[in-house]
Amino acid sequence: MSEDLEKKVVELCRLGSFSEALDLAKRLLSEAEESYGPEDPKVATCLSNMAEIYRAQANYAEAEPLWQRAIHIRKKAFGNSHPAVAHGLNNLGGAYFEQGKYEDAEKCFLGASRILEETVGRDHLEVATALNNLAAVYRAQDKMPGAKAMYDKVLAIQEEKLGPYHVEVGMSLNNLAGIMESQHRFQEAAHYYERAAKVAELVFGAEHPHVATSLINLAGVLIAQEKYLEAEPLVEKALGIWEKHPGLGHPSLASALEGIAEFYEVLGKPARGEELRKLVGGG
What we know:
Elements: H1 2-14, H2 18-36, H3 41-56, H4 60-78, H5 83-98, H6 102-119, H7 125-140, H8 144-162, H9 167-182, H10 186-204, H11 209-224, H12 228-244, H13 254-266, H14 270-280
Helix pairs in contact: 1-2, 1-3, 2-3, 3-4, 4-5, 5-6, 6-7, 7-8, 8-9, 9-10, 10-11, 11-12, 13-14
């Protein structure tokens, strides 16, 4: 019964019914403490569920002590190096990251990755998740060499476990491309974007908007190298995809179309640029 109620808490939170979810989560916590004692792992689960509800509302002041208590319980029950402790550290690190507390987040993600490497193995997908979180922290602090090293490890694990053409592999390739692009290492960025575009095409289909986004990313680094003639067919292909879905007049494409219009002006095709600008303006 408690498992069903825990699932209901998750579902209520997903639906945005936070008050109802929190009332139920508090009830489950009280029942767990009464039935099993205040330091039972079942209590840690209830605490984590409550913390997630607060986190969903960006109420970190309430969420953090709940996760800290849950981690303490799990360490006492299972030892300091247990996957359950790592999961708690990942959750707490995520809350720190969302608040811009990068040093605290880094400590949590490093601790989680080390525990998981010891317990489930260096090539496990859970390790990849922790390293991906750590890479995001480094990237947010503009520590690009550290971020790239983490993303390289993540990509290697994902390719081994999921194969070279998987949505998560595509995300890692895009992350690596973004790092290279931010450092003006455009040839390396183009390599990663090209691979990401191929993954997107195989995963989602050749006419999917994700493919268009990947093509525009690739075109962008070619344009940065003044390789305009190589970039143009990629841009046109992306526009062809977007024209079918979601439609070139869609508000989500306004910023991209403005940039593409500028590209066509540089290319010496102002009429094409003006045509796209009219779409941005709804005309």
